[in-house]
Amino acid sequence: MTELIKPGPEFRQLFHSFEHTAFRLETFDQYDATYENESLRKFLAGEPDDLPWMQSWLDMLHEATAAGRRFSRVRVVTMPLTDYSRFGVWCSQFTGGAGEDIRYLPRDLASDLPRYDYWLFDSRKLVRMHFDDRMGFLGGEVVEDPDEIVRHNYWRDAAWHHAVRRDNFAKEHSL
Question: With bands split at pLDDT 50, 70 and 90, how would you rate the model's confidence at 171?
Fold first, then answer.
Protein backbone atom coordinates (compact mmCIF):
# COMPACT_ATOMS: atom_id res chain seq x y z
CA MET A 1 0.00 0.00 0.00
CA THR A 2 1.23 3.47 -0.82
CA GLU A 3 1.15 6.27 1.73
CA LEU A 4 -2.31 7.40 2.83
CA ILE A 5 -3.64 10.90 2.43
CA LYS A 6 -4.71 11.45 6.03
CA PRO A 7 -8.04 13.07 6.93
CA GLY A 8 -7.62 16.83 6.97
CA PRO A 9 -6.80 19.64 4.55
CA GLU A 10 -4.96 17.52 1.96
CA PHE A 11 -7.81 15.01 1.78
CA ARG A 12 -10.45 17.77 1.68
CA GLN A 13 -8.59 19.32 -1.26
CA LEU A 14 -9.60 16.31 -3.37
CA PHE A 15 -13.19 17.58 -3.25
CA HIS A 16 -12.23 21.07 -4.38
CA SER A 17 -9.81 20.11 -7.15
CA PHE A 18 -11.79 17.74 -9.40
CA GLU A 19 -13.19 19.16 -12.63
CA HIS A 20 -16.42 17.29 -13.40
CA THR A 21 -17.42 14.31 -11.25
CA ALA A 22 -16.79 12.81 -7.83
CA PHE A 23 -18.25 9.36 -7.16
CA ARG A 24 -18.11 7.28 -4.00
CA LEU A 25 -18.94 3.64 -3.51
CA GLU A 26 -19.87 2.96 0.15
CA THR A 27 -19.85 -0.69 1.12
CA PHE A 28 -20.19 -0.82 4.91
CA ASP A 29 -23.30 -0.76 7.08
CA GLN A 30 -21.74 1.50 9.72
CA TYR A 31 -18.86 3.93 10.11
CA ASP A 32 -17.34 5.36 13.28
CA ALA A 33 -17.66 9.10 12.96
CA THR A 34 -17.75 10.63 16.42
CA TYR A 35 -19.26 13.87 15.10
CA GLU A 36 -22.33 11.87 13.98
CA ASN A 37 -22.92 10.07 17.27
CA GLU A 38 -25.13 12.73 18.88
CA SER A 39 -27.11 13.17 15.66
CA LEU A 40 -27.60 9.41 15.39
CA ARG A 41 -28.80 9.31 19.01
CA LYS A 42 -31.28 12.14 18.30
CA PHE A 43 -32.49 10.42 15.13
CA LEU A 44 -33.17 7.16 16.96
CA ALA A 45 -34.95 9.05 19.75
CA GLY A 46 -37.08 11.01 17.26
CA GLU A 47 -35.58 14.33 18.43
CA PRO A 48 -34.95 17.28 16.08
CA ASP A 49 -31.38 17.98 14.94
CA ASP A 50 -29.89 20.72 12.77
CA LEU A 51 -26.87 18.51 11.83
CA PRO A 52 -24.13 21.10 12.52
CA TRP A 53 -21.37 18.59 11.63
CA MET A 54 -22.75 18.34 8.09
CA GLN A 55 -22.89 22.06 7.24
CA SER A 56 -19.43 22.39 5.67
CA TRP A 57 -20.16 19.37 3.42
CA LEU A 58 -23.50 20.88 2.38
CA ASP A 59 -21.84 24.23 1.64
CA MET A 60 -19.22 22.50 -0.51
CA LEU A 61 -21.92 20.54 -2.38
CA HIS A 62 -23.87 23.74 -3.10
CA GLU A 63 -20.73 25.46 -4.36
CA ALA A 64 -19.63 22.53 -6.54
CA THR A 65 -23.03 21.91 -8.10
CA ALA A 66 -23.50 25.64 -8.77
CA ALA A 67 -20.21 25.45 -10.71
CA GLY A 68 -21.51 22.45 -12.70
CA ARG A 69 -19.51 19.77 -10.88
CA ARG A 70 -21.36 16.59 -9.87
CA PHE A 71 -21.22 14.54 -6.69
CA SER A 72 -22.77 11.07 -6.64
CA ARG A 73 -22.55 7.91 -4.58
CA VAL A 74 -23.96 4.44 -4.26
CA ARG A 75 -24.48 3.01 -0.81
CA VAL A 76 -24.51 -0.78 -0.61
CA VAL A 77 -26.86 -1.69 2.24
CA THR A 78 -27.87 -4.82 4.10
CA MET A 79 -31.61 -5.44 4.24
CA PRO A 80 -33.33 -4.91 6.55
CA LEU A 81 -31.51 -1.64 7.11
CA THR A 82 -29.44 -1.13 10.24
CA ASP A 83 -30.25 1.90 12.42
CA TYR A 84 -27.13 3.57 11.05
CA SER A 85 -28.24 2.97 7.45
CA ARG A 86 -31.71 4.35 8.18
CA PHE A 87 -29.98 7.42 9.64
CA GLY A 88 -27.92 7.67 6.45
CA VAL A 89 -31.04 7.60 4.29
CA TRP A 90 -32.53 10.36 6.44
CA CYS A 91 -29.35 12.49 6.22
CA SER A 92 -29.19 12.03 2.46
CA GLN A 93 -32.30 14.16 2.01
CA PHE A 94 -30.12 17.14 2.99
CA THR A 95 -27.13 16.22 0.83
CA GLY A 96 -29.53 15.53 -2.04
CA GLY A 97 -31.03 18.98 -1.53
CA ALA A 98 -27.53 20.41 -1.79
CA GLY A 99 -26.90 18.60 -5.09
CA GLU A 100 -25.47 15.17 -4.29
CA ASP A 101 -27.14 12.23 -6.06
CA ILE A 102 -27.18 9.29 -3.65
CA ARG A 103 -28.53 5.89 -4.61
CA TYR A 104 -29.00 2.65 -2.71
CA LEU A 105 -28.11 -0.89 -3.70
CA PRO A 106 -29.19 -3.90 -1.61
CA ARG A 107 -26.15 -5.99 -0.71
CA ASP A 108 -27.54 -9.11 -2.39
CA LEU A 109 -27.30 -7.27 -5.74
CA ALA A 110 -23.71 -6.15 -5.11
CA SER A 111 -21.82 -9.46 -5.08
CA ASP A 112 -19.63 -8.43 -8.03
CA LEU A 113 -18.56 -5.16 -6.42
CA PRO A 114 -15.52 -4.66 -4.19
CA ARG A 115 -15.91 -4.96 -0.42
CA TYR A 116 -14.22 -1.62 0.25
CA ASP A 117 -15.04 2.05 -0.26
CA TYR A 118 -13.49 4.32 -2.85
CA TRP A 119 -13.77 7.76 -4.40
CA LEU A 120 -13.34 8.21 -8.14
CA PHE A 121 -12.67 11.74 -9.35
CA ASP A 122 -13.23 12.62 -13.01
CA SER A 123 -13.14 8.89 -13.84
CA ARG A 124 -9.34 8.99 -13.63
CA LYS A 125 -8.23 9.59 -10.04
CA LEU A 126 -8.95 6.66 -7.75
CA VAL A 127 -8.73 6.99 -3.98
CA ARG A 128 -9.28 3.80 -2.01
CA MET A 129 -10.58 4.45 1.49
CA HIS A 130 -8.99 2.77 4.52
CA PHE A 131 -10.61 2.29 7.93
CA ASP A 132 -9.48 0.90 11.27
CA ASP A 133 -11.15 -2.03 13.04
CA ARG A 134 -13.81 0.29 14.52
CA MET A 135 -14.54 1.79 11.07
CA GLY A 136 -12.79 5.06 11.86
CA PHE A 137 -11.45 6.68 8.68
CA LEU A 138 -7.66 6.41 8.42
CA GLY A 139 -7.16 8.04 5.03
CA GLY A 140 -7.23 7.53 1.30
CA GLU A 141 -4.74 5.68 -0.88
CA VAL A 142 -4.29 7.16 -4.36
CA VAL A 143 -4.20 4.28 -6.85
CA GLU A 144 -2.46 5.12 -10.13
CA ASP A 145 -2.59 1.78 -11.96
CA PRO A 146 -4.63 2.43 -15.16
CA ASP A 147 -6.11 -1.10 -15.14
CA GLU A 148 -7.36 -0.61 -11.57
CA ILE A 149 -8.89 2.74 -12.49
CA VAL A 150 -10.73 1.19 -15.44
CA ARG A 151 -11.98 -1.66 -13.20
CA HIS A 152 -13.30 0.86 -10.64
CA ASN A 153 -15.04 2.84 -13.40
CA TYR A 154 -16.76 -0.39 -14.46
CA TRP A 155 -17.82 -1.06 -10.86
CA ARG A 156 -19.15 2.50 -10.57
CA ASP A 157 -21.23 2.04 -13.72
CA ALA A 158 -22.53 -1.38 -12.64
CA ALA A 159 -23.47 -0.12 -9.17
CA TRP A 160 -25.17 2.97 -10.61
CA HIS A 161 -27.14 0.86 -13.09
CA HIS A 162 -28.67 -1.33 -10.38
CA ALA A 163 -29.02 1.22 -7.57
CA VAL A 164 -32.27 2.98 -6.64
CA ARG A 165 -32.58 6.76 -6.28
CA ARG A 166 -32.65 7.92 -2.67
CA ASP A 167 -36.23 9.24 -2.72
CA ASN A 168 -37.58 6.09 -4.38
CA PHE A 169 -35.63 3.89 -1.96
CA ALA A 170 -36.91 5.86 1.06
CA LYS A 171 -40.51 5.65 -0.18
CA GLU A 172 -40.22 1.94 -1.01
CA HIS A 173 -38.94 1.21 2.51
CA SER A 174 -41.28 3.67 4.33
CA LEU A 175 -38.45 5.84 5.64
Answer: very high
CA pair distance 166, 86, nearest whole angstrom: 11
CA 3 to the chain's CA centroid:
22
Domains in the chain: ranges and CATH: 4-172 (3.30.870)
Strand ranges in 21-145 using DSSP code E only, listed in sequence order: 21-26, 70-77, 100-106, 118-121, 125-131, 137-143
My answer on whether omega of the bond before 80 falls inside 30° of 0, hence cis, is: yes
| 3-class DSSP state of 130 | strand
Q: Measured between alpha carbons, how far is 32 from 117 in angstroms, rounded to an integer?
A: 14
User: Measured between alpha carbons, how far is 144 from 127 in angstroms, rounded to an integer?
Assistant: 9
Residue 34, pLDDT above cutoff 80: no
For 153, counting Cβ atoms within 10 Å of its Cβ (0-12 exposed, 13-18 middle, 19+ buried), the class is middle
Alpha helices (H) in the chain, listed in sequence order: 9-17, 37-45, 55-66, 83-97, 146-162, 166-172
Say what the pTM is: 0.95
pLDDT digits (tens, 9 = 90+) for 87-119: 999 999 999 999 999 999 999 999 999 999 999
